[in-house]
Specification:
Elements (H helix, E strand, L loop, with lengths): L1 E5 L19 H9 L3 E5 L10 E5 L7 H12 L3 E5 L8 H9 L5 E2 L3 E4 L16 E3 L1 E2 L12 E3 L5 E2 L6 E4 L4 E4 L16 E8 L2 E6 L13 H14 L4
Parallel strand pairs: 1-2, 1-3, 3-4, 4-14
Antiparallel strand pairs: 5-10, 6-12, 7-9, 8-11, 11-13, 13-14
Length: about 240
């Protein structure tokens, strides 16, 4: 497959396939290329792309109407689209993604998913309610085959149109942290918060992930993250 990564809307310091820092995707790129996939980077507007899958991660710049229209047609005709956000709507990334995501019935929320029970300590041993292990996995989706869990470090929630579109979610004591203090406040939605959602649209497929760090170098030594990545792109390419 040919996989195209958007460079025209995101922060150049994060989520680039040639970036070897913690927030880069170089290890993901190495894995995909070893599996025979061809990778492309796009610095121009997202139009007339000759690829099988398009990846849009953490967009700080607006996605324009003609780009949205192209991507909708692209998916409808059989393409795959992966959208990845970050927490709290920082740099308007959720607003920018939602111009596109809502065409497929999905919404990225301006919040941060926390969990009281499934905290994943950092390498330094710090425990933060937003650095969590995701074990709620919908086994009806091959996206999570051979995956036991994955970690998000600071991700947002996603609203699907239908509950059966939810691929992964936080635990029973997870919540949508709206004010960013990593503490539960009365009125914040509580329990089983979605962090990955899938959609079929026409002949194509869409996957929304609330934290691009899932595929970033810092976490990619974990075999669960590697397997999840392979499954995600295989599903988007309609190989599984």
């Amino acid at each position: 497959m040919i996989i195209g990564f958007d460079e025209s809307h995101k922060d150049p310091k994060n989520f680039s396939i040639d970036d070897e820092d913690n927030n880069g995707f170089s290890k993901l790129a190495d894995l995909l290329e070893r599996k025979g996939h061809k990778l492309r980077q796009f610095t121009d507007p997202l139009k007339d792309l000759e690829v099988d899958i398009v990846v849009v991660a953490f967009p700080k710049e607006k996605i324009f109407t003609d780009e949205v229209d192209f991507l909708v047609r692209f998916v409808q005709s059989g393409g795959g689209l992966l959208m990845m956000a970050e927490w709290g709507g920082i740099f308007d990334n959720a607003k920018n993604l939602n111009v596109l995501a809502r065409k497929f019935g999905l919404t990225f929320n301006e919040d941060r998913v926390c969990d009281a029970d499934n905290i994943q300590p950092t390498k330094a041993g710090r425990k933060r309610a937003h650095n969590i292990r995701i074990t709620g996995l919908n086994r009806n989706y091959p996206i999570v085959n051979q995956v036991q869990y994955f970690v998000i470090t600071s991700g947002c929630s996603i609203n699907p149109t239908y509950k059966n579109q939810i691929v992964a979610w936080g635990g029973p004591r997870s919540w949508k942290d709206v004010d960013g203090d990593s503490e539960y406040d009365v009125g914040e939605q509580f329990g089983y918060i979605p962090v990955m959602v899938a959609a079929q649209y026409g002949s194509g497929r869409v996957l929304a992930l609330g934290d691009g760090s899932v595929l970033a170098n810092e976490l990619f030594a974990d075999p669960n993250h590697q397997q999840l990545a392979l499954n995600m792109f295989s599903w988007l390419g309609s190989e599984i």
